[in-house]
Amino acid sequence: MARGREGKDTKLVASPSISPMSRVERTRTRIAGFQSPEMDFQLMRSLGAASFGGGEVGEIFAARAAMGSDDPRAWPPSFAALADRLRAAGEDAARRGQRVSARDHFLRASMYYRSAEYFADPFGRAAQQWGCASREAFVKAAAHMAERVEAVEIPFAGKALPGYFMTPAAGAPRGRTVLILTGFDGTAEELFVQTARAGLERGFNVLAAQGPGQVGSLRVHPELAFRPDYEKPIGAMIDYALARREVAAENFALYGISFGGYFVIRAGVHDARIRALIVNSPIVDLYAYMVAFVGPELAQNPPPITLAEVDAIPDAEFPPAMKLSFKSACRRFGVDSFAAWLARLKDFTAAGSLGNIRCPTLAMAGEGEGEETRAQFERYCREVKGAVTRRMFSAEEGADMHCQVGNLALSNAVVYDWLAEVFG
């Protein structure tokens, strides 16, 4: 409302002769998510990465708008096109000597290629191409960082597991180092924006590594599947880390995210070289965890679906998102049917051995992750022998999502402040 010359109220109304396109607006971008909970979570995952340079909100919502639907098959080309544009912008900035701009463009391109890779057919060429493009863009971004980020290969069982060894620009006081593993569908490149950058800023060395079955490893070793005895590949990663002069054995920590929570629990049970353990979240029994995810009815009566026939099933009977999840599970666990996947999950357990974990532990989970997650969180905290610091994140904190993707700044503050206190 405005006051006229005679003191009367005057309404400010746009003239009908002004076309909608010529009016002044704040923006034509509209905030829109998805009907699919999984696609909504992946959208938040990309938005959360923006906290540490892994995205920009406007770009992400532009990519979402370009999809035009909730079909997950529209996701990869939209994010890949965005990544292509940023990779080109990074190349141009690098040619002009604009190192900061080049770093930022390449880093976001890497994360958008990872996002495209996520919803791509895990057996298709496009997933391989986008995954390799994500790694390539990240390596180019790293070349323009103040921190030292070195692509490494870790020997294990006749193979070379991929990863990155990172050191702060000023070095890590007393060699404080954390080895970080992601889970079912994360990548070592994503770990940089998810948590490693926060660790480097606080003076920690970081080794982000990928073991059998993980996305980064499958790009180069498609024959390697997830294995229950993950203490063995992690043991090789620890061998590698402790052999480096930058690392102090007395200040060495292990951090597992998502399915990585199971991996690091297995290592904590078997490897006394771990001086501090962060589990986000504690997965003690993978079968029970996944049954709660897919539902007990489906677990008790698994559909007679095989990898060979899944693509021929009409979308109305088996939606595209479920097909992709099924194929990803087969790809990473090395199975060819729903029933075989469920049977394989039963091998992934640390039940009965948690008492062997005697180092200090930080156990983390979100309130929004469901009853089974909380039950396994409580079981872990109850049965380990070492001192346990518990942290349950709330919706009020904007951090109740899986792996706290909605508030990575808070999550990282909890992790690295705890580690700093443990190492003194």
Total beta-strand segments: 10
Work out the count of structural domains. 2
**Main beta sheet: strand number and arrangement?**
8 strands, mixed
Distance between the termini: 60 Å
Oligomeric state of the chains present here: single chain
Strand order of the largest sheet: 3-4-6-5-7-8-9-10
The CATH topology of the largest domain turns out to be: Rossmann fold
Order of helices and strands: EEHHHHHEEEHEHHEHEHHHHEHEH
Class by SSE composition = alpha/beta
Overall radius of gyration: 23 Å
Named CATH architecture of the largest domain: 3-Layer(aba) Sandwich
Reading off the top of the CATH hierarchy, the class of the largest domain is best stated as Alpha Beta
Helix share, percent: 40-55%
What percentage of amino acids are in beta strands?
A: 5-15%
Mean pLDDT: 93
Poorly predicted runs are: 1-15
Form type: globular
Discrete helix count: 15
The CATH H-level superfamily of the largest domain is: Alpha/Beta hydrolase fold, catalytic domain
